[in-house]
Design goal:
Elements lengths: L1 H4 L3 E11 L3 H13 L5 E4 L14 E4 L12 H11 L6 H20 L21 E5 L2 H12 L2 E3 L2 E8 L7 E8 L5 E11 L29 H8 L4 E2 L8 E3 L7 H5 L4 E3 L11 H8 L10 H13 L6 E3 L7 H12 L3 H9 L11 E3 L13 E2 L25 E3 L11 H23 L8 H21 L15 H15 L8 E2 L1 H17 L8 H26 L10 E2 L7 H4 L1 E7 L6 E7 L6
Parallel strand pairs: 1-2, 1-8, 2-5, 8-15, 16-17
Antiparallel strand pairs: 3-4, 6-7, 7-8, 9-14, 9-18, 10-13, 11-12, 18-19
Helix pairs in contact: 2-5, 2-12, 3-4, 4-12, 6-16, 13-16, 14-15, 14-16, 15-16
The chain binds flavin-adenine dinucleotide.
Length: 614
């Protein structure tokens, strides 16, 4: 293979290395330059930061804005809101830290050219809901990326980071990262004093509703491949709340967002017979979760729960009542534009299915589960909190540093802090970068030591699927099924099936229990063994192979956490059939895990939830 024999090894040294140039990564890169004027700040991204990450195709709203300049909300209010939505369990120190800085971030976006809609009467930002403001956001990502590009010493696009490097001069300290260029196949060794992981959430660990030719259509970005979790997990960082996967109610078949419909257009849902159904499930839900059902707003998972129960009772489909709102031409325009800015596929689906929401109420559905730390759930790494606000137990050094020294994170990567969304993720990137710069400055001239042996061993491992394919391909004359290798797509489908059937996916109505989870772990273990035989026919497939490795590790983590928490904390996201009720006596706590790369063992523990805000 001439192409790969020309593969080069490229060494890049930096002070601060940002892995993933999405919202959090751009925030981290921008802020690292602000505090570290003379530092070498490198951002490495598997796509191109101009249009990468979950915001790639634009957004229609910024979902986290306090509006402190107009006294609309205070940071404490946002903590209360997120805590309520997550059924009591959030890292209040981290959430408060983001909320107190997020407005400043949004003001920067506007300064950089992002058009934010204004209320013509008050002159304030146009609110979509209590926390959301409306934007003309098709170019949101390029605008944010420009700030990062100008701040970075270098941006490396098209490099998939596969592993973190460890410093050999000090145990439990990060030393950089390795990856490969998905276009040229060059191998990259990034040595860094501090690493900030901002590599986004995880789609496609559960079987999606859209299969076959439509499988690329998921709610969370299909390219969000769990690197945010796998990279720290492999490095030995502790993770939290990985069981807290998210399930979303969305327009059917296109995953079109419903927020603007509920909040701005004031549409509402009904069952197939035109009946309101949520109140029917009140008593049953109260039995399961107690007073949490009486909170305002009703936690997202509980609204899903009523939807699912109504469907199971045979009164689906659930529809969004759009016919009334769409009679108003302004609302009709807003309804369509809402998709054109961020989920154009939903408009296409409706056109292809003869659905005009002015005359037909469109169907809703619940999505397959995703793992993420920035939306309405809070899976991710266990991080140190802000020094002026975090309880002692949540502080072991620098803000947003994980339990591995020098390793920081932001956005979907960091656990315990739901509802940060795009603006909060960028803000958390800024917070992490400021702390990382302090860390680097405190190191003075100390350099991480990364031996040739460490990265050469990884190089062998990373490119192995190309070799496996090249040799095994000769054993078959046609087709894709080989006795010697497994293609990434087949591995992915096997993973999705295991997670779906054993760990509470769509086909099990999000239900699982101890025997299912235990068997699921066995099957994941077997899949892990087989991944040693992944075959990649080209660099694109090599990227798919490593995305699969990352997804599998994150899936293992989700399964262990789900097994550990013996209660059903979030009905509507998932159910433990053997522990169907919320149990505040034993489980008003965080779940924390650590993976041992050498033994392959997972250790789980509980960590306390501190309620700092009344
Ligand atoms: C459908 C959808 C709708 C949303 N709607 C809204 C909304 O209306 N308002 C709002 O405020 N927020 C919204 N959000 C949330 C918002 O998009 C996320 O909170 C935010 O993007 C998270 O930032 P992040 O940096 O953690 O991840 P991302 O922005 O996804 O960035 C992750 C980056 O890491 C890169 N990467 C991944 N793996 C690797 C690797 N191994 N090596 C190198 N690079 C890697 C990715 O390519 C990507 O650029 C929405 C999200 C989705 C999916």
């Amino acid at each position: 293979m001439a192409l790969f024999s020309r593969r080069k090894t490229i060494h890049v040294d930096s002070d601060v290395l940002v892995v993933g140039g999405g919202m959090a990564g751009c925030g981290a890169t921008y802020e690292a330059r602000y505090w570290g004027r003379d530092l070498k700040v490198v951002c490495v991204e598997k796509a191109n930061i101009e249009r990468s990450g979950a915001v790639a195709q634009g957004l229609y709203a910024i979902n986290c804005y306090m509006g402190m300049q107009w006294d609309e909300n205070q940071p404490e209010d946002h903590v209360r809101y997120a805590r309520n939505d997550l059924m009591g369990l959030v890292r209040e120190d981290l959430g408060y830290d983001i909320a107190r800085h997020v407005d400043a971030t949004v003001h920067k976006f506007e300064e950089w050219g992002l058009p934010i809609m204004r209320d013509p009467e008050t002159g304030r930002y146009q609110r979509e809901g209590k926390w959301q403001i409306m934007i003309h956001g098709e170019s949101y990502k390029p605008i944010v990326a420009e700030a990062a590009r100008k701040a970075a010493t270098e941006v490396y696009n098209r490099i998939m980071v596969t592993h973190l490097l460890m410093d050999e001069s000090k145990p439990n300290r990060v030393g950089g990262a390795v990856g490969f260029n998905v276009r040229t196949g060059d191998f990259y060794v990034f040595r860094a004093k501090a690493v900030i992981v901002c590599a986004g959430g995880a789609s496609h660990i559960y079987k999606p509703r859209a299969v076959g030719e439509g499988m690329g259509r998921t709610w969370y970005a299909p390219w969000s491949s769990a690197s945010a979790y796998a990279l720290p997990i492999l490095a030995g960082a502790k993770m939290t709340q990985m069981e807290n996967r998210i399930v979303l109610t969305r327009f059917k078949d296109g995953y079109g967002p419903v927020g603007a419909y509920f909040l701005h257009l004031k549409t509402y849902t009904e069952n197939a017979y035109g009946e309101e159904y949520e109140s029917k499930w009140y008593d049953q839900t109260k039995e399961l979760v107690g007073d949490y059902v009486d909170r305002h707003p009703v936690p997202t998972c509980l609204r899903n729960h009523a939807f699912l129960e109504e469907m199971k009772a045979g009164r689906g489909p659930i529809r969004m009542v759009t016919k009334e709102a769409f009679q108003d031409p302004h609302k009709e325009t807003v309804g369509w534009e809402n998709f054109l800015g961020m989920t154009i596929g939903q408009a296409v689906v409706w056109a292809s299915q003869n659905i005009d929401p002015k005359y037909i109420n469109p169907e809703l559905t619940t999505s397959e589960p995703y793992v993420m730390g920035s939306h309405a759930t809070c899976s991710g790494a266990w991080a140190s909190g802000p020094s002026d606000y975090a309880p002692d137990e949540y502080q072991w050094g620098y803000n947003r540093m994980m339990t591995v020294e020098g390793l920081f994170g932001a956005g979907d990567t960091i656990g315990g802090t739901a509802h940060k969304f795009s603006s909060g993720s960028f803000t958390e990137g800024r917070i992490a970068a400021k702390a990382a710069v302090n860390y680097v400055n405190d190191l003075r001239n100390e350099q991480p030591r990364v031996s040739e042996q460490q990265y050469e061993e990884l190089q062998q491992e990373i490119f192995k699927p190309l070799e496996t394919y090249r040799i095994g391909r000769n054993e078959i004359v046609a087709g894709t099924v080989s006795p010697s290798y497994l293609l990434p797509i087949n591995g992915l489908q096997r993973l999705e099936k295991i997670m779906d059937e054993y760990v509470g996916g769509i086909s099990a109505h999000y239900m699982t229990n101890e025997p299912l989870l235990t068997r699921g772990l066995e099957l994941l273990g077997m899949l892990k063994e087989d991944l040693a035989y992944l075959g990649a026919e080209d660099l694109h497939q090599l990227q798919r192979a490593w995305e699969l490795h990352h997804r599998l590790l994150a899936s293992e983590s989700v399964t262990h956490h789900t097994l550990f928490r013996t209660e059903t904390r979030w009905p509507g996201y998932y159910y433990r059939g053997d522990h169907p009720k919320l149990d505040d006596t034993d489980w008003h706590c965080f779940t924390v895990s650590r993976y041992d790369r050498q033994s392959g063992e997972w250790q789980l523990e509980k960590a306390p939830v501190y309620h700092i805000i009344d």
